[in-house]
Write a structure and sequence with these properties.
By secondary structure, the protein is mainly beta. It has one domain: Immunoglobulin-like (Sandwich). Helices cover 14% and strands 40% of the residues. The protein contains two helices and eight strands; from the N terminus they run αββαββββββ. Strands 1-2-3-6-5-4-7-8 form an eight-stranded antiparallel β-sheet. The N and C termini lie far apart (76 Å).
Length: 176
């Protein structure tokens, strides 16, 4: 009688663990910069930014590698991931439209027009989320503005995010 445990894992059984690991990694990339979830107008917003190289590390036929028409080969590409939940029901929101605009904020008062893209619905490790690639040459602080519109909503919800790409948090000034 063989009493050894069966250690074979299927891709389907690993999807929830993989999704959690990706969100954990993406959250760690943000460091202690934002408390998550952010909440606005009945929506809980989780977000993360990961280097595109991580997605390029997936096998050539993997669906995550083909997201958004494939990973751009120019610049310093990062993948912005946003996951939405209804605050009351805690159900995942899968019918929203999200636009993200990314601004570099290296020079205060010199806010130039940022990259704006639609965050596309996607399955990431088997979980429904939204995302797209952005060129984030760094290190630099960035402001990400999300505009979220749920199906049937009269107005959109605007949510600002701060992301410090490769930049240590600012030290508080000491009184002299």
């Amino acid at each position: 009688m063989n009493s050894a445990p069966n250690l074979a894992f299927s891709a389907k059984s690993m999807a929830p663990i993989s999704a959690f690991a990706w969100l954990l990694f993406a959250s760690a990339a943000l460091g202690a910069q934002a408390v998550q979830p952010l909440r606005a107008d009945g929506i809980e917003i989780f977000h993360g930014v990961i280097p595109a190289e991580i997605i390029l590390g997936h096998p050539a036929g993997d669906s995550e590698r083909k997201m958004h028409g494939s990973t751009p080969a120019w610049g310093e590409q990062y993948h912005l991931i946003v996951t939405l939940f209804d605050s009351a029901s805690k159900e995942r929101i899968q019918d929203a439209e999200i636009k993200a605009t990314v601004f570099e904020t290296r020079r205060p008062g010199k806010r130039l027009a940022g990259q704006q893209k639609r965050l596309e619905p996607m399955l990431f490790a088997g979980a429904a989320s939204y995302g797209n690639y952005f060129n984030l040459p760094g290190p630099a602080p960035y402001r990400i503005e999300l505009e979220i519109r749920r199906r049937g909503a009269v107005k959109s919800v605007k949510v600002p995010l701060e992301y410090r790409h490769g930049v240590a948090p600012a030290e508080p000034r000491q009184k002299e």
